Amino acid sequence: MKNIVILGGSFAGISTAHRILKQAGKSAPLKITLVSPNTHFYWSMAAARGLVPGQISDEDLFRPTAEGFKQYPANRFEFIVASAERVDVEAKKVGISSPTGKSTLDYDFLILATGARAKGDAPFKGVGSTEETKAARRDFQSRVKTAKTIVIAGGGVTGCETAGELAYEYGHEKEIIFIASDTKLLSSTPATVSTYVQASLQDLKVHLKLSTKVKSSNPLPNGQTELLLSTGEKLVTDLYIPTFGLTPNSSYFPSEFLDANGYVVVDSYLKVLGTNDVWAIGDVSACEWSQFIPADKQSAYLAKALVLVLNGKTPSPYKLISHRITGIQIGRKKGIGAFGTWTMPSFLIVYVRRMLFMDRMAGILDGKGL
């Protein structure tokens, strides 16, 4: 019996667990143990709209993880609500901490799928436990509702979508300022995408401050935040939302296997470089960018590769995605996409993203939609 431990209960971890169990077959001598600090699967792809009060309920954004795996017998699958604290790659042991105490798991194969977290306090990703993430969402919605001025910083997809969602709802009643350090938004996309997004945000009354950085942010006694900008300007706002960058959830893993930013370094088979029988996928991995599409591709590859390894066969190397795919929605009526140098029209993006893919959540959680 091979013990496969998967750390992380978001999309990458959940989908990989289902895929391995399906592809290995009922008679394969393996057991998967999925470890996550969250009792529920959080659909973070809808997080930006979820910051707007009254738009998406907790019931729609959070679903019990255990329910998605109830079809598997206990000798094939186990779900443990706990946080990984350390990994000993030589002894093949994982130290975990749960509400009932600390314990150690032995593994034959280990998959790191612990994701990443947002650098600010907005719950774009999970914030600790499920209850902590729900509480953070409620708190943020309350602050959004009472704020008269909102500043978003960071010129990537998350920042653009957050500015769009807030401006669509409040553009005529709140001052919404969007700060980006580059000369244009979404600088890695084709110029047509950047131009369209900027014009769409301005149509929603978003005030853009380009070629500008937030050098520091200081909370004030009255609950506001004072921002010092690279231009020398000081800006006081009721709500500050930084959206630049993610921090990988990798503190439990030995630092010699991480890059300078804390991401896990992998080889062409998605195995953690310098280890045996340890793989990393999704946002915690240094391979590809942090988004659903690469995480899905890595999960599908790894499940197939691991089943081959279990059967004594050698998998082919992982093929990196050749062109970055971006789909962005500005508010609820506009959007644009890019695949390499190709752009996708607004009507297509709005139609595809009309439910923010929440209709796929149940099928991913129980494995039927994979």
TrEMBL record:
Residues that span the membrane, as ranges: 335-352
Entry-linked InterPro entries: FAD/NAD-bd_sf, FAD/NAD-binding_dom
GO CC terms, sorted: cytoplasm
Origin: domain of life: Eukaryota
SUPFAM superfamilies xref list: FAD/NAD(P)-binding domain
Keywords on record: FAD, Flavoprotein, Membrane, Oxidoreductase, Transmembrane, Transmembrane helix
Similarity-based family: Belongs to the FAD-dependent oxidoreductase family.
Protein name, per record: FAD/NAD(P)-binding domain-containing protein
